[in-house]
Amino acid sequence: MHQLCLPMGLGENDMDKLDQIIGRRRKVPRDSYLYRMDDVFTNLYAVRVGHFKTCQINAGGEQQITGFQMAGELLGMDAISTDHHHCDAIALEDSEVCEIPFARLEELFGTMPTLLRHFHRMMSQEITREQSAMLLLGNMRAEQRLAAFLVNLASRYVARGYSSTNFQLRMSREDIGSYLGLTIESISRLLSKFKKQGLLGVSNREIELLDITALKAMAAGTEACS
Fold first, then answer.
1. What is the pTM of this model?
2. Nearest Cα to Cα of residue 181 among 144, 214, 219
3. Average pLDDT over residues 68-79
4. In terms of Cα–Cα distance, which of 114, 142, 110 is closest to 225?
C-alpha cells in the first residue's frame, strides 16, 4: 500500500507520522456497502485487498456504475467538497480497506508538502479517469468502449505487479455494461466477437489478452472495426 496509495520520497519520520493517522483495517464482505450515497464524509478509504464498484441511481431509477476500484486506489474523494458521499461503494468480492481520517490527513498537509503534492496528483488522476469514462460513453463505438475498458484494466494490473495479459474480471458482465452504457447482451456478443478475431481468450470471467496492440489500436480508433 505504501507503494501504491501513499507517496514515495517521504522521510522515515514523515512516514511514521502518516502511518499513525491511518485507522483500522475494515473488512467489507462481497456485495456489502463500504458507504452509501449521502453518508457523512469522515474518511478516505485505501483499498488494501479486493475490488469495489461505485454507483449512483440515474433519473430512471436504475443503478448506474460510475467506476471500478482495486487494491492501491482510494475511495471517497468525491465527498471532499460537500462532506457527503455522492455514490454508493460496494465490494465486488471479500475486500479490505484502511480508513484514513481526512481531518487528520489535512493537518499533515500543512507540514508535509510532498504528501500534499502527491494527493493533488491522485486527485488529478481521478479527474482524468472520469474524463476518460465520459469519452467512452460519448464518442466511442461499442467495440472501442470494451477494448478501452480491457486495456485500462490491464494497465492497472501491470502497475500492481500482475500479468499484463491474464486477469479475472471481478465485475459481472451486467456491471461492465452499465459502466460502458451497453446491454449485457452487447457485452457478451462483443466478447465472443473479440474471441473469434483472436484478440482475446475468454473462459467465464478469465480473460487473456492475445493481441494487446490490436486492442489498443481499436480503443484509440486507429483500427477499422468490422
1. 0.85
2. 144
3. 89
4. 142
